Design the sequence.
């Protein structure tokens, strides 16, 4: 499949409307990290123990039915909004994972490195699908897998994640979308972007 040279144009209103739609559809609340006292407390603890000093501004975090974002939705450049759009169903996938069995998800995500890797690989596949749809480009599996370095997993887990995403990338490159939340999101964007240009990449739902 030919790659797209230009990503779609996403306005701030488009971005905010998509987040509002997905939050309502998946039943989660969106909270800016900078406004959340609990996030500030976590950031203070991480800093005290030598953790990532940029945690408040770098990572989106989902806890149950709450999604804490390090940005103001709709802000920044077009590419920034594209990344925000890709983040939305990624976090929505975590909400779906949680709802399948809340106690098991919570325990596994915190204490089981292999399970945490599986959850993240599943969500990063959603990111990959959405990014391809909006830009025509396939995110590098290794780049996505290496993000797990910030999740305190070992090299073997990162390798497994990369293998999983490499297999998914082979499908995405041909426009094959398999994640349910990606299909839901793309249908919304197909309606939103109708008769606008540049057009999204052709995908098969």
Sequence:
């Amino acid at each position: 499949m030919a790659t797209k040279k230009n990503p779609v144009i996403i306005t701030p209103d488009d971005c905010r409307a998509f987040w509002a739609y997905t939050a309502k559809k998946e039943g989660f609340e969106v909270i800016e990290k900078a406004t959340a006292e609990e996030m500030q407390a976590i950031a203070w603890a991480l800093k005290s123990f030598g953790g990532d000093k940029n945690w408040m501004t770098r990572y989106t975090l989902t806890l149950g039915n709450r999604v804490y974002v390090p940005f103001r939705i709709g802000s920044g450049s077009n590419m920034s909004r594209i990344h925000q759009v890709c983040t939305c169903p990624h976090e929505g996938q975590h909400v779906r994972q949680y709802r399948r069995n809340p106690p098991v998800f919570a325990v596994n995500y915190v204490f089981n490195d292999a399970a945490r890797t599986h959850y993240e690989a599943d969500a990063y596949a959603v990111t990959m699908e959405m990014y391809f749809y909006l830009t025509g480009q396939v995110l590098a599996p290794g780049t996505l897998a290496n993000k797990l370095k910030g999740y305190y997993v070992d090299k073997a887990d990162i390798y497994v994640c990369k293998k999983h995403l490499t297999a998914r990338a082979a499908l995405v490159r041909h426009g094959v979308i398999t994640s349910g939340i990606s299909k839901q999101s793309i249908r919304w964007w197909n309606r939103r972007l109708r008769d606008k240009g540049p057009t999204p990449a052709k995908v098969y739902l």
Summary: The mean pLDDT is 92. The radius of gyration is 17 Å. The beta strands are 29-32, 61-63, 66-69.
